[in-house]
Amino acid sequence: MDESEYSDVIRIPPAELKKIIEQCIGAGRAKRIQYNSIGLTVMHPGGTQARFQVHTLDLSATGLGFLHGGYLHKGSKCSILLKGVGDTSLKVTGQITNCLHITGCVHRVGMKFDCPADIERLLGANNEDGSLTGRLLFIEQSEPERGLMKHGLRSTNIEVIGFAAPVKATSYLRSHSVERVLSDIATIEDSVTETILSIRKASYRGPILLTTTDQRSPALSKAKELGAGPALNKPFEPSELILFLSENWVDEDEDDQDADAPDSGLLRLLESYITQVHNLTRELDAATLSADYRLTLGVCHRFKGSGAPFGFSDITQAASEAITALYAGGSIPDASAELRKLREVCARIDLSQSDLLVP
Q1: pLDDT in tens, 57-87
Q2: Which among 219, 223, 173 has a CA at the least distance from the CA of 196?
Q3: Quick check: 312 and 349 in contact, CB under 8 A?
Q4: Strand 37-43 with 180-184, pairing
C-alpha cells in the first residue's frame, strides 16, 4: 500500500487511539485475525472515490471491523487493499453494514465482503491445524517488544516465555523444554558466542531463530557462523511473524536438522582449554618478568603442543614463532616481539574461533 494515497482522518494522539482500539476489541475477540491498518476506498453515489487509511479492529474471511475518522453511510460500496507477506496483496470488495459513533471524530465501522476472502492464506496466519503450539523462548531487552511478541501471537497456541537477559534465558533452558528459541540479535550483540553455545549446552536442538534490523550486522554474521538463523527483519507485521514461525516450527526431525550443532561434551572440553590458555598466559608473564629463559621456553612449548588439537592453530603458530626466536637469540629480550604476539593471540581466544566447531 502506498500510504501517500490513503489519508488518515483520525486526528488524535496515538496513546488515545490505542486505548479506544483496545476497548473496542475486548478480551473475547482474541481469536480473530489482527491487522494494523488497511487502505480503504469508498465509492460515493456520484461516482467519486475517497481513499482512507483506517485502523483495524478485526478481520475475517467475510468482513472487516475498523475505526474511521468520519461517518460512512450504510450500503456504501467500498474495497480494501491488504498487504500480505512479501510482495503479495489482495483487493477485496464489499459494502458498509454499520457505522457507530464512538467519541469525537472516531466511528466504529463494519464492512461485509461481497465474497469470502482467503485472508489467512494471504497473511500466512492460518493456525487451524494447531501446528503453532508450544513454548517460544524469546530473548529481547525491550519489555514493550516482549509484550508485543505475546500480543502478535495471541491468535496461536504459542506460550511466549520472555527474558531481557540472555543469561537468564539460558538458565531457564537448562530446566525447561521449549519448541523454539527466538532472539533479538541486538540483545545478544555483546555475547553472541556465549549465548548461542550456552543454548546448545542446555541440550536445545532446534533452530535458534533471530530478529534483526540489519542483515549486514557483524553480530548476525557471527551468530550464523555458529549455526543460528534464519533471521526475521524488523519491523514486521504479526502475519509475517506467524508465517516465519510456521516455516520454522516443529515439523522436521530435530536430530537430522541439527546434527552439526556442537555437543555439550565438546563445548565443556573447549571451555576447559580456554581456561588453561589464560592460566598459561599468566605463567608466561611471570616467567618473562623473572627473566627465566627455560621456563619461558617451556610454556611456549606447551602452547605449541596444545593449540592446534583444540582447533586453535593460530596459538600453535604464534608459539612456534616465539620458540624459534628464543632459540635463535638465546634470550627473552631477543624474542620480545614474538612473545608479545603470542600473548595477543591468547588474549583474543574465543570458542567460536575453534576449528572443531566448524561443520
Answers
A1: 877 788 888 889 888 888 899 998 876 554 5
A2: 223
A3: yes
A4: unpaired
Number of neighbouring beta carbons within 10 Å of residue 29: 13
In a domain, 124, yes or no: no
User: Considering only CA atoms, which of 236, 176, 166, 221 is closest in space to residue 197?
Assistant: 166
**pLDDT digit string, tens, across residues 258-275:** 444 555 556 667 777 888
Which one-letter DSSP state was computed for residue 258? Answer: T
Identify the top-confidence range among 112-126, 216-230, 263-277: 216-230
- If phi > 0 it is left, if psi is from -120 to 50 it is alpha, else beta; for residue 229 that is left
The verdict on residue 99 lying in a domain is yes
Q: Are both 224 and 334 inside the same structural domain?
A: no
Q: What is the pTM of this model?
A: 0.44
**pLDDT value of position 263:** 53
The span from the CA of 47 to the CA of 172, in Å, is 61
Cell 475475517 -> residue: 60
Domain of residue 319 covers 265-357
| 298 shares a domain with 248 | no
pLDDT higher than 60, residue 187: yes
- Please, are residues 159 and 134 in contact by the beta-carbon 8 Å criterion? yes
**Are 140 and 223 in the same domain?**
yes
**Identity of residue 246:** S
Kindly report the CATH number assigned to the domain that includes residue 103: 2.30.110
Closest to 138 measured CA to CA, from 199, 76, 191: 199
What pLDDT does 137 receive? 93
